[in-house]
Task: structure prediction
Amino acid sequence: MAENTPYGRLEEFSPEIETFASYSERVELFLQAHAVPDDRQVAVVLNAVGVKNYSLLRGLVAPAKPSEKTVTELLDLLKGHYEPEPVIIAERYHFYTRNQKEEESVAQYAAELRRLASTCSFGDHLDDALRDRLVCGILSAGARKKLLAEKKLKFQGAVAIATNYETIEKDSRSIQQQHESGDAHKVAYKGKDTGDKPCYRCGRQGHAPSTCRFRNARCNNCSKLGHIAAVCRSNQGKKYNRSQGKTHKVDEQADETSGESEDDLGVFQIQSISSHSPPIMISLKLNGQTIEMELDTGASVSLISEEVKDKYLPHVPLQPTHIRLQTYTAQSIKVLGKCQVTVKYGVQEKSLVVIVVAGKRPCLFGRNWLKHIVLDWSSISHVSLAEKQKVDKVCSKYGAVFREETGIMKNFKAKLQLKKDAIPRFHRPRQVPFALKEAVGQELDRLEGCGILEKVKTSEWAAPIVAVPKKDGRIRVCGDYKVTINPFLDIDVYPLPNVDEMFAVMAGGEKFTKLDLTNAYQQMELDNLSRDLVTINTHQGLYRYTRLPFGVASAPAVFQRTMDTILQGLDKVVCYIDDILLTGVDDNDHLKTLEAVLQRLQQHGITLKKGYRSTEQHGNADSLSRLPLPHCPKRELDVDTLFNIIHMSSLPLTHSKLKAATLTDPKLSKIMGFIRTGWPQTVDEELAAYWRRRNELSVEIGCLLWGRRVIIPRKLQKQVLLELHTGHPGICRMKSLARSHLWWPNLDADIEQLARSCRPCLEVKSTMTPPPLHPWIWPRKPWTRVHLDFAGPLYGKMYLLAVDACSKWPEVWEMSSTTAKRTVQILSHLFGLYGLPEQIVTDNGPQFVSEEFCSFLRERGVKHFRSAPYHPATNGAVERFVKTFKQALKIGRQEGKLSSQEVIDRFLLQYRSTPHATTLSTPAELFLGRLLRTRLDLMKPEIYQEVERQQAHQKHYFDRRGCDRVFTLGQNVLVREYCRGGVKWSFGQITGICGPLSYWIKLEDGRQVRRHVEQLKKGSARDRVDKDINDDWMSHTTEPQIEESPDLRDETGYHGNEDQGSEGMAEDQLERQEVDTPSETTSPVPRYPRRNRRVPERPFMVSLS
Result:
């Protein structure tokens, strides 16, 4: 304890008594109340914290001394030690799992919720969280029902309603107990009827039938409402008889001596019925002493004898109680009192009340303790030694049934029948996850060693495998036959037993045995013709099953039919595929049935998993006689499906995937049919949205489009929504981005729903309403005015942000230092990339008001505008981007998959490619003059790609029948004629090359013509021109004659030697020109008059080299 000082006494801090936040407040109030001078505050606080905390402070400030620190620094050091920064998830877990305790009032529960919520960072959602937890965790079902009926409920209102309901319940209980106390002595009397008749609904006394808790119960005997089977009048003389086991029934009655209640236990009556069945004993520790207590679910209270109390709990004080106990013969049992003891069972530890009675009596574990202690029922429910010996004797007689290896069924073989139109299907092996590859390989080797699989080299059928992890850590290898033989199987139809049939067979049984077949299907051999059909393709090669495999559509019916045939004629036996259930009217009949079943199984070579369980003292095992079958097991996805689900979402969605999904979508396929064949006058309501846009819908390469927006099929909408939500841009930006690429009905509503259900967005999103923005004059061109600001620290780093006022183009730079020098370096780099802006807008940060920064801008002719002090809205363009940037970075880091730089890069790409709410254009479009390519662009079908593909396809098939044809200068050829009557071919010689596929040819009559390679053949002239071609052509001065050949066109546009210049000649004239040269031979007489054309004034020359 702290000593007295001239300023009073301040107790030292003790974490067991109070929180450090509370102690820190007391220290500040102490210093203020006693007006301690500043120079003495540290000494006073160090003297008050105590020896333990002073030693702690010396270690925290070493090598300095605590006296060298201020009071605030000392308190902060202690706070960081005693109350470190809490883990939000853990704090919220404690908050959401906190329920109201038994002895806790509503006010105490509400105060505890407030305390737990103080470290959960609920923010503006604090009131909602407190209200929801109060409604869910309150003990009173009536109060919860009343709270749920309120439409607009706040936390304070919920506390008030629950408190009022709690008060009403206490008052009603007190009045009821006072009313019942006057008739307590009548209940204890067991003689003649004194007017307190038993309730006809339940048979008990002490209450009226109108208030009986069984007034709405349904009788298990006659199925009528209003009573239970124990008092049913339809039994026709049969008395309701409980099991012959020993029970202790404790009934509530009133106290004849006092009207007050004791822990709501009332007055009790104990009845005992002797039995040969051994009791169920529970081993517990009471105040550290081990005591054996008999489990009795018929007793409402737990009790111990005076002897046990004196032996094991002598120092525990005995408290008075008004509880009265009686035996079955109405003899009173002396109650000495009650004790508050600490009960420990396993890892459970509770403080509970136990009743102490006089004499030597058994210790009972009653229902009041079962509410607080969860027993290990698996250890309690056991098979007696005698029963186990009988079962072991039967099992040892048929030991072959319980051998380890998988059995081979005798006299039965499975045959798979294919349909007539079956087509073999061969699938490649699927990729096995690396974590499972070794286990899958071991399982394949084991199956091959057991003879269940055999290796093959080739097969027409092959199914990929599915590796399913079992609960014991092993792998089950199954063939995915739904992609191979299942669609072509002629499936054997055989009914499986239903629940009613199984209940009918098991009726009258007391004990039940379940036999589980080892690898059931794989015990049945396949005939040789069926084995090739069930071949599987693995990473180790091809295997085929020699036994009936899992996954074949006919397997359940084939196996069920076989097992029913094997077990035919046995009573009290039912088989459901690989599980055999059996029972008997008594133990002997049960064992006979068990032996008969094992004998049948051994005759047919079937093996089982060994295990037997009795249900006489195990209520939850007796399900077939009392309870319905358990709920359907949770479907386990195979590893390949899980892998695809996890990793396919990260792959971009292309138009080929959209095409496949569109063709399988029932709505969109119907819409595509309407577009091709015509729309009806009316459509269903679900197609109304498409009908209104019917004139704007089109189909391109299998994809449905509304204008230029792709219509997304329903099964891909969720993936597209997640793609739009990449970077968590918010509702408005998601809508803007979607309107540039895609559409489906109710798209905006789906975007809003996704954004509002995103937990990271909800946790980070600010609910503050921004103040009105001061409008700036919008620049007419990019990079005219740039807004700058710093963001951070975020995850230990600072960032410089720049936003172009015209295009809203953002730049983000990670800053190792925020000095003016470093800021100038970044701006110099930006100016080098995009040039000098006219204006820079910043706030009044020390970097921006420094002389170095201002001089840097003045030297470059850039005007510097600073916002008004404490008015960030002046620099609103970048301030809003700072908020968006912080939100995106926090959300991205919360996902835990990417680094900060990767999050920033994704965010910038999304931001720059999304239309801005102000400009209605993307920043990239205004700043760069083009759109940025994103993964969403892959969904749009491109026409040019289809055209190029078709052209390549045509060229491929055309070139198969073609070949390269090349001619050289001076080569003799046959030339196709078009203007010489019936003459189709003339002889000539190559004189020039005017294109990749075009040549100049001098004909034997002296004409000069241009032809395509398809108009030329290799050949020799009958009369070769004697004179050298080059000399004759260069010395030719005769007016050239033009031959009209309208069908000839040169694809390249090349016309002889480019050095000669032909730009003055019309292209169509060059393509039609043919030049005659003087010839000694007589030219043939033309069929039609020759057309004379004016020769261009520019000299016409053709290169012969």
Observations:
- Residues 155-181 form the longest helix (27 residues).
